[in-house]
TrEMBL record:
Enzyme class: oxidoreductase
SMART domains, alphabetized: PKS_KR
GO MF annotation: an example: 3-oxoacyl-[acyl-carrier-protein] reductase (NADPH) activity
Keyword Oxidoreductase listed: yes
Keyword Oxidoreductase part of the UniProt annotation: yes
Keywords for the protein's UniProt record, in alphabetical order: Oxidoreductase
Residues of the Ketoreductase domain: 4-177
NCBIfam families reported in the protein's UniProt record: PRK12826.1-2 (NF009466)
Enzyme Commission code: 1.1.1.100
Pfam families referenced in this protein's UniProt entry, alphabetically: adh_short_C2 (PF13561)
Listed name of the protein: 3-oxoacyl-[acyl-carrier protein] reductase
Family, as annotated: Belongs to the short-chain dehydrogenases/reductases (SDR) family.
Length: 235
């Protein structure tokens, strides 16, 4: 396959960075959006805010000028503001939804223009086990991630005949600076619920994203693919 134009939102650290590096290693032309414009080596960095439509438009224009129409979109940008329901403000709720869910809508709508003209495309929405499994203190985050499932499935029914697929990759606990800083007792309590007995590595999620964006996965669309060591059992 010839190199494709790949855009990953929130691609400067963690899972997003690992996804970018995976596509770079596969020979694709990769761009990442971040608030700062920073990017992994080999990727085009574009400063963008997924909560701002004009910023998203400007980012796509830059990417298209450099790499051509976006053929693979990975909507990864996200935030969390965890707190129990009775302490959660409306701003806490709406801010998470605006970034994680409406932000995905903004980039998806813009990317679909080029995909429709090309009559091909891959959309991967980065969800979470929390979206279907639930988690105390994360009503806003869980709502935003479960909403991505409906988005992917509706897009599949709307644009599936145009050679465009849309899937959700749903990670569980991924080893990061945040999990490394948890005390031993907390880590053990989390691990006790994971049949695999360990946290995921970011590149394990990234490889699934790359695969579901490949020609090998051309007949998979509207799926939720868990990468959680058995934590959610697909729920």
């Amino acid at each position: 396959m010839s190199p494709r134009s790949v855009l990953i939102t929130g691609g400067n650290r963690g899972i997003g960075r690992a996804i970018a590096e995976e596509f770079i290693a596969a020979g694709d032309h990769v761009a990442v959006t971040t608030r700062s414009g920073e990017a992994p080596e080999g990727a085009l960095g574009v400063a963008a805010d997924v909560t701002d439509t004009a910023s998203v438009e400007a980012a796509f224009t830059t990417v298209e000028e450099a790499h051509g129409p976006v053929e693979v979109l990975v909507a990864n940008a996200g935030i969390n503001r965890d707190t129990l329901l009775m302490r959660m403000s409306e701003e806490d709720f709406s801010a998470v939804l605006d970034t994680n869910l409406t932000g995905a809508f903004r980039v998806l709508k813009r990317a679909s223009k080029g995909m429709l003209r090309m009559k091909r495309g891959r959309v991967v929405l980065i969800g979470s086990v929390v979206g279907l499994y639930g988690s105390p203190g994360q009503i806003n985050y869980a709502a935003s991630k479960s909403g991505l499932v409906g988005m992917a499935r509706s897009l599949t029914r709307e644009l599936g005949s145009r050679g465009i697929t849309a899937n959700v990759v749903a990670p569980g606990f991924v080893r990061s600076d945040m999990t490394d800083e948890l005390d031993e007792a907390t880590q053990k309590s989390y691990l006790a619920n994971i049949p695999a007995g360990r946290f995921a590595e970011a590149d394990e999620v990234a490889r699934v994203v790359r695969w579901v964006s490949s020609a090998e996965a051309a007949y998979i669309s509207g799926a939720v693919i868990p990468v959680d060591g058995g934590l959610g059992m697909g729920h």
